[in-house]
Amino acid sequence: MQATKELLFKMADDALIIGHRHSEWTGLGPILEEDIALSSMAQDKIGHALALYTILHEQFGEADPDTLAFLREEKDFKCCQLVEYPIGEYDFTITRQFLFDHAEILRYELLAQSSFEPLARLAKKIHGELKYHVLHANSWMRRLGHGTDESHARMQAAINSTYPLALGIFEEGPFEDELIEQKIFPGEKKLQQMWEENINELLGRAHLHLPSVSDATVGLGGRNGYHTEHLAPLLEEMTQVIRMETGVEW
User: Fold this and answer.
1) Tell me, what's the pLDDT at 25?
2) What structural domains does the chain harbor?
3) Which of 34, 41, 193, 216 has the most crowded CB, counting CB atoms within 10 A?
4) Other residues' Cβ atoms within 10 Å of the Cβ of residue 128
5) Is the pTM above the cut of 0.90?
6) What's the first-to-final CA gap in the chain, in angstroms?
7) For the residues of 173-239, what is the DSSP string, one character each?
């Protein structure tokens, strides 16, 4: 039971935090279509988080979804550090979305075969929605990778700095063996291998490439409650209304 809860928490927290980061582009997108696209993906991510928190509430007796999303302390969040970083320039946002959503769509593809039926059912639904997120990221990677010298250079620089952080997506928890043995999830190593093969091919088509990583610890810690300096102020902003009106029914 604890193994499944750990998996659900890290997936839900990832979706909640990156959903909030995507929402910060609302009204700021470089073109109208991107303003709409990031806002739409933000809504999807928040919906995914809600569905996962609901499973935690209904199947494992955890608090209700609003409490899990808005009233936990920073140290209790299991999100990877990648999703915590501010939106920065659009090259970073697109690169983060590309790396994160390719990991997510593969994760949900694997989870569609999970022995934990509530998660398997949800995975099939979310996988379909993520196809559009991945399509969006792929389109911009190709467009900017094949664009001007400046756009190509900026995207490669964004990949160089973001890829080491993205490896934190696959940080293993204490129940990894149990998840694999019980056929709940095939494991982070398998997911990472599939992910790297996939993004290597796609980046090659855009004339971009993955960097070599000298420090394998970059981006790690989030799954164990060790976060960047960016998460606390994000949570403060995200939860200020509910914290002022605790107990109110929304």
Assistant:
1) 77
2) 2-244 (1.20.1260.10)
3) 41
4) 11
5) yes
6) 31
7) -TTHHHHHHTTS---HHHHHHHHHHHHHHHHHHTT--PPP-S-TTTT--GGGT---TTHHHHHHHHH
pLDDT in tens, 87-109: 999 999 999 999 999 999 999 99
User: Using CA of residue 147, residue 151, residue 153, residue 154, what is the dihedral sign?
Assistant: negative
Amino acid at 7: L
Q: Which two three-digit tokens encode residue 23? A: 């929402």
Helix, coil or strand: residue 147: coil
Token look-up 């664009």 returns 147
**What are the structure tokens assigned to 173, written together?**
């928890």
Integer Cα distance of 238 and 69 in angstroms: 10
The model's confidence at residue 242, banded by pLDDT at 50, 70 and 90, is confident
Q: Read off the tokens for 240.
A: 């200020």
Q: Assess contact for 102 and 82: CB atoms under 8 A.
A: no
pLDDT at 77 over 70: yes
CA distances from 32 to 35, 107, 129, 157, 160 (A): 5, 31, 21, 25, 28
CA distances from 22 to 45, 106, 142, 227 (A): 9, 20, 20, 19
Tokens representing 104 are 């997510």
